[in-house]
């Protein structure tokens, strides 16, 4: 449980970093970043697999690059649902999703693995 809370805080911090580095992405406060981190997690857990399945032919034809389009659109979509988290368009969404993924991967890779993941 503590690990989940820590990952949530790290994801919110990653959103704040992305907002500082990229124009077109704005996070008003840490509370908004916490809400956006939860929302993005839910979107990636529920909508993303469904969209990847539905667009499988396009993904295969583009050798997997279409998944980047899906990620950018979902990041952009998340920005339209939370007050205080704004993504102004597709390109900021695409680059924001890429940078957000990279930052969260770096931050969470520094954590000690959970018990049982041996």
Characteristic key phrases:
5 helices; two-stranded antiparallel ribbon; 118 residues; single chain; 2 strands; mainly alpha; 72% helix
Main sheet characteristics: 2 strands, antiparallel
How much strand content do the residues show? 5-15%
Instruction: Kindly state the number of beta strands.
Output: 2
Shape: globular
Rg: 15 Å
- Order of the strands making up the biggest sheet: 1-2
- Secondary structure category: mainly alpha
For the terminal residues, how far apart are their CA atoms? 18 Å
- Summed up, the helix count is 5
* Overall residue-averaged pLDDT value: 93
What letter string, H or E per element, gives the SSE order? Answer: HEHHHEH
Helix share of residues?
Answer: over 70%
Descriptive overview:
With 118 residues, this protein is mainly α. It has five helices and two strands, in the order αβαααβα. The protein has helices at residues 2-21, 30-54, 56-61, 66-79, 90-109, and strands spanning 25-27, 85-87. It has a two-stranded antiparallel ribbon. The longest helix has 25 residues, at 30-54.
């Amino acid at each position: 449980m503590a690990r989940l809370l820590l990952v949530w805080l790290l994801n919110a911090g990653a959103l704040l970093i992305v907002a500082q580095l990229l124009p077109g992405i704005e996070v008003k406060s840490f509370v908004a970043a916490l809400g956006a981190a939860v929302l993005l997690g839910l979107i990636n857990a529920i909508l993303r697999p469904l969209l990847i399945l539905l667009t499988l032919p396009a993904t295969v034809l583009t050798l997997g690059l279409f998944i980047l389009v899906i990620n950018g659109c979902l990041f952009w979509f998340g920005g339209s649902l939370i007050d205080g988290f704004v993504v102004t368009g597709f390109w900021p969404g695409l680059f924001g999703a890429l940078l957000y993924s990279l930052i969260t991967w770096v931050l969470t890779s520094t954590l000690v693995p959970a018990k049982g993941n041996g």
